[in-house]
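Pasting as-is:
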Amino acid sequence: MYLISDLLKAYLNDRDLKPSTRQSYGVACRALIRQIGDCIVEEIDRNTVTQWRRDVLRITLNEVSWNTYMRHLRGLYQFGLDTGLIGLTKNPFDDSNVRCPKRPKKTTRRLSITPKVYWRPQKMKKTTGVNVVTSTLPGSGLRSLTRYCLPGYVPGS
């Protein structure tokens, strides 16, 4: 009979993991222990996981964090099942992920961009004229300038 914390110790001793990964498994186990206590691993069933999800999802945890916890706990329980440390027949954390909300696009359609023309008068070497922005590359700040010479134009007047 293993407690959740004992199963975590056995898993971390068996695997060669980076320190950040070890810490992530510890965070997921502590979240589970905080919710239901450090109980025997066979006492956790699908209903327990579903109730935990209802209690914390969107209140204290977002969907991405929940899925990270489930991925770690599923791996931990699968290790216990494969090595015979757990007497269960099915992993209670299987199919417990939730769908993450879709993020808005970071790009816009070309039709929604209204072109603007910027006039910048500049005094040139032999002639006077202005540079006009003829096109822009959306989202980059890059501009294509075209020089127009205006007869009789005096900058600053």
